[in-house]
Every structure is written in structure tokens, then in C-alpha cells.
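Pipeline run #58 for the internal structure catalog. This entry was flagged by the ingest filter as a single-chain record with no existing model, so it goes straight to prediction. Upstream metadata was stripped on purpose; only the residue string is passed forward. Reviewer on rotation: M.T. Logging verbosity set to normal.
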Amino acid sequence: MTSSAAKRSRARVKVPQLLQMEATECGAASLGMVLGAHGRFVALDELRVACGVSRDGATARNIVVAARSYGLQTKAYKREPQQLKALTFPLIVHWKFYHYLVVEGWYPGGWYLADPAEGARTCDDDEFDRSFTGVAMEFIPGPDFSAGGKRAGVVGRLLSAAGRVGPAILAAALIGLLLLVPTMLIPQIMSLFGNDLSGTVGISAVAALVGLTIAFTVQTVLRSLQGLLSIRLSTKVSLRLSASVVQRLLRLPAAFHAQRGASAIAQRAFLIDEMSVGISALTMTLSAAVLTCVTAEIVLLVIDVATGVVALAIAAVTALVLRGSLLKARNEAAKVMVETVEVGAMMAAALSQVESIKASGSEDGIIARGVAAQNRRLEAEQRIGLRMIGLDAIPALLIAAGTIVITGVAMAQVVAGRLDPGSLLAILALTGIMLGPLSQIVAAVGQAQMLRPTLDQVDDVLEADLELDEADEAGEP
């Protein structure tokens, strides 16, 4: 191997994260990440079938066969950890004799891992040496390999799962447009009041108070209508999805149930309410907040270009900072979902076999397993809770800093004689009007990202293939 080839092979190759929904899917999820690194995006459901995942998982041989079916040239090796550094990354390795994960690359003293159970992480040489079993698989795109597919956006998937929500979105957009009237009047009223400070202050104050009262009253009524519409939409989506999931489960072939635990499948029917509330909030927030934010920014640009550009830059920085943090929080949410399903499935399975458990005297073992699974779920929830504390603080901090910067720019314009005092008050009001909905948009998109694991669980049922076995088609019992 030449020095340039060695350098390429040792460089870290980041893979798109694809987390498993069940413990048996680690091999399929690892292959999906490797394919994604080479530009081929395949759904986990398809990978599960290609890798022959059963309730016992997938074998290394099945993973190799599946990879070759997608056009990857695959080689399996028996290697020591240091020997892996000469191979082409990313690799799939056997881990702790019961798990598969992706090795993205290495650095002095450690390794970059993409774990389908935990997400992206690193480990030192000692942990890698203890956990790596010696089996590694190398994947190189062959002449038959073709990039394709795409990573579906979570917002579009949520709206697609909700079904016909067009009327609700239209109603939310209409309410958002009506909300713009009092929202845009408030800065105008404050501007007129500020410009009349040197004149009839008493009359201006009374008129401003009356105008503000009317505007706030209209805002309250319209926001109440928004809340009522959100509740109705949430109920409608929940009923529709629940009926679809139950109907689909009854129609799916035996092969679907053979690849998954019965208790784990049943748990997915209980995820509908959480997802329907998220879809409702997303629909209501995006349609109204986007209109308000864009309109306020346009008005700011009309009043003063410099202030409007600063506000736009602050909004862009806020979105970029939160995007990176939300990706990490999404992985934590996936872990919580996996642990939640595992706990529910374990308890449901135990209750269905309670007589056998009591007869064999294995109650203590079942309780210990249940407590351990519950502790893992609580730890995952605590980790995501700590991360969300930071995420919740970031918008408030950035918006406060942005308000200070915009205020400073506007005051500088007043001092320079480019703005009057009334326009300064209008800019301050418009800043709050624009940055407030911005934080709502960020929160809604963040909530949508947190719902991705729940959506994956539900889509695993709704998008599963309904083709029947040959015996069923022939009418055999």
C-alpha cells in the first residue's frame, strides 16, 4: 500500500447515524450506516430483510451477503486491533460477542465509533482491545454499486403520517395571518406615540392605551382559537394513526412478527398519542410562527436596512447553533425510545407468562431484569434531560443577546439622525415579534427531531410489506 493510500484508509470517515430499534438489528443498522457513508441510503426495514434478521439477530455471513447485494466489495478478516488501522474505513466489527458496530477511524490512543445502540462516540485503546472480538468486515464500492435514496426529513414524514391535515394547516395559516394584524399594529402604535412625545402627550397616551388594549384582546382570542384547533387536530391524528396501526398489525404476514418480539410490537401502539401531540404542535407553530417571523423581518428591513440585516444574521446564528445540539439530542431520544420499548416488552412478556414464572420460582430473576431495564431507561432520560436544559437556555441567551445588539444598532442610527424616536420604539417591538416566533420555530423543529425515534417505531409497522407467504396465498392452513 502506498503512503497516500495508507493515509486515505486511516482517515476518519464519518457515517450518517442510524440507530437500531431493537437489539437484534445492530448488524442491519451498521450496514445501513456504511452504505450511507458511500452515498446509498436504505431504510432499516429493507436492511432487516436483506440481512435476514430474526429474533436472534443477524450473522456476519448474512451481513456480508447483504452488502454484496448492494454492490459493495466485502472482505471479512480476523485481525488484532492495531491491524485494523491498515484497512479502509468505515468497518463493521463484532463487539463483545453479541453486538455489531461501525468503526469510523482512529486517533492516537483511541477509536471513533458509530454504535447503532448508542450513537457516535469514542473509546480508548484499552476498551477497544477488551471489546473487539477480532472479526472485522471491510466494504469498498464495486462496479455494481450505485448511490441513491435519500434521508427523509422528519417534518415531512410527520405530516405524511398525519394524513390529510391540509385543512388544519390552512386554518392555522389563516389564524396566523389574522394575528399579523394586531401584531404589526403594536409597533405602529408605539411609533406614533414616540413621535408625539413633544406634543399632546395625554391624548397620545390614551389613544395608545386603547389601541394596545384592542390589539392584545384580538391576539388573545385568536391564540385561544389556535389552542382549540390544536386539540382537535391532535385528537383526529391520534384516532387515525391508532386505527391504521392496529389494522396494519392484523394484516402483516408471519414473517414480520417472526423478526420482532410480540411484546415489542404491541408497545408501538402506545406511542401514537405522543406523536399526535407533536404533529399538532408542529402544524400550529410552523404555519403561524413562520409567517410572523418573516413579516416582522421584512418590516424591519423597510424601517432600517442595517437593523434588519443584523436581526437576520442573529436568526441564522441561532438556527445553526441549535441544529448541531439537536442532532445529539436526537440520538439520546432514540436511546430513550429503545429502552422504553424494551421495558414495556419485557414486562408484557413477563405478565403473559406469570404462571410459568411462578411455577419455576424465577420471580427474582425477572424482577432483577425489569429493574435493570428500567434503570437504563431512567439514565437515558436523565441524559437527554440534561442536554435539553442547555438547549432550552441557548435560544433565550441568543435572543437576549440579539435584542441588545439590535437595540444598540438602532440607537446608533437615532444618534446619527437616520432614525426618529418613534422608529426606535417600533424596531424594539418588531425585534421581540420576530425573535419570539423564531424561538418557537426552533423549539418545534427540535421537538420534531425528538419524535424521530417514535416515528421510526410507528413507520416500521405502517410501511412494512404486506405481501403474504406462498402458503397463505395458496390458502393452506
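catalog note: The radius of gyration is 28 Å.
catalog note: DSSP finds 17 helices and six strands in the chain.
status: ready for reviewer M.T.
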